[in-house]
Amino acid sequence: MLRIIEKTKIWFAFSLIIIVIGLGFIFTRGLNFGIDFKGGTQVVVEMGKDFDKEEADVIVKQYASDASTNKIDKTQYEIKSKDLPTEKVSELFSELKKTYNLEETAPVSEDSIGASVGKELAKNSLVALGIACIAMLIYIQIRFEMNYGIAALVALVHDVLITLSVFAIFYIPVNTPFIAAILTIIGYSINDTIVIFDRMRENSKNMRRSTPEVIANVSLTQTMGRSINTTLTTLFSIVAVNIFVPTVREFSFPLVIGIAFGAYSSIFIASPVWVILKKKVKKKNVVETA
């Protein structure tokens, strides 16, 4: 039998360190919101061959000093900026065409998002996130009991904060695919947590004389293999997508982080929290009985 609950302080400390560092960056520097939320222009240019990104960046900065750039598949050049109107895009592309002898007469794609649209996206994203969390907690409350629901909520908040912390620490742009990834992470994490909780509920009935620590450790030992195998299989697929399909990296990268820590939280966060709550309830019942 694995003794996971006995090392609860270690698991909590590990997550807390990452979250505290991440929140520190969020409060001091803020998140790097992309044009989806702040509004702006996104342009993708097909260069036709491998190119020197730093050299191209020098040209771009002349037209948009706040621009962020990215090299996709060695031949495509992505440009994002808050201040890059259509006329400047045309001038910029003409400069790139002249410097790199481009054959295309226009950029591969050009998208503009207004600041008001960005604010609306941010608002709708938060609403969607809230509705998803409430719906899942209602389901857990109906199927299980309050202790399980609270533990699941703590695990979900943990997963969101960890993913946000990684993006804040490394100042990775946050766009709408990030929100979609967060919703996917929450769904995946709650699924893994429910599998463990279901086993804990069964063992609670069959091991009435055992302590919450023993019940949790036995349940985690029984479900550990399934959790790890499922997580690794999923991660292999998503990592492959992240490496070989650059166009969806804004969605796949947070998924890699969230799914890994989602499995971690189901085992090392949700279960210990359930034990803590269960012990408090038992202690309260003993006091009331006395």
From TrEMBL:
Cited InterPro entries: SecD/SecF_arch_bac (IPR022813), SecD/SecF_bac (IPR022645), SecD/SecF_CS (IPR022646), SecD_SecF_C (IPR048634), SecD_SecF_C_bact (IPR055344), SecF_bac (IPR005665)
Topology in membrane: Multi-pass membrane protein
GO molecular function, one term: protein-transporting ATPase activity
Principal cellular location given in the protein's record: membrane
Transmembrane intervals: 12-31, 125-142, 149-172, 178-197, 227-245, 251-277
The UniProt record lists the keyword Cell membrane: yes
Keywords carried by this UniProt record: Cell membrane, Membrane, Protein transport, Translocation, Transmembrane, Transmembrane helix, Transport
Domain of life: Bacteria
Pfam (any one): SecD_SecF_C
GO biological process, one term: protein transport by the Sec complex
Span of domain Protein export membrane protein SecD/SecF C-terminal: 104-279
Cellular localization per UniProt: Cell membrane
A single GO cellular-component term on record: plasma membrane
Biological function: Part of the Sec protein translocase complex. Interacts with the SecYEG preprotein conducting channel. SecDF uses the proton motive force (PMF) to complete protein translocation after the ATP-dependent function of SecA.
HAMAP family recorded: SecF_B (MF_01464_B)
Subunit annotation: Forms a complex with SecD. Part of the essential Sec protein translocation apparatus which comprises SecA, SecYEG and auxiliary proteins SecDF. Other proteins may also be involved.
Similarity-based family: In the N-terminal section; belongs to the SecD/SecF family. SecD subfamily. Belongs to the SecD/SecF family. SecF subfamily.
This protein's name: Protein-export membrane protein SecF
Organism: Clostridium gasigenes
Gene: secF
